[in-house]
Amino acid sequence: MLITFSSSTTSGIGLETSLLFATEGSSLILADINLEAAERTASLIENKFEGKIKAFAVKCDVSKEDQIEAIVKRAVDEFGRLDVMVSRRDDKRRTPFNRLNQWFSSVRPTVQQCRDHAPC
After folding, report:
1. CATH number at residue 10
2. Calpha distance 69→87 (Å, rounded)
3. How far apart are alpha carbons 95 and 60 in whole angstroms?
4. Domain count of the fold of the chain
5. pLDDT of residue 75
6. Which pLDDT tens digit goes with each residue over 53-81?
7. By residue range, what is the domain housing residue 42?
8. Where are the beta strands (DSSP E) in 27-108?
9. 3-class SS of residue 88
């Protein structure tokens, strides 16, 4: 069984990615800035898979390294490990080429946590 952290899981690609991981038997930590929406996703997954898949929601701004680090710690405390990190930041605004550094600074904390906690 995999343990997966996934962000922006409340609709679209993020929701479908979470459902796919659940279909494959992964337990899920569902992170979103909108906790109520993430809780709905967790309930949807637990109901769809009749409680065989554990899913819990956490409020998280993926641009904040301390929040991601706390989630990684919770995953390790709860499951003993974290196998997969899916960071799908849902930013409906288009980022102009001259502002890519600003965009990257918002995803850098997740990239750093992947680097720091990868089991390789």
Report:
1. 3.40.50.720
2. 13
3. 22
4. 1
5. 86
6. 999 899 988 778 788 888 888 888 888 88
7. 3-117
8. 27-32, 55-59, 84-86
9. coil
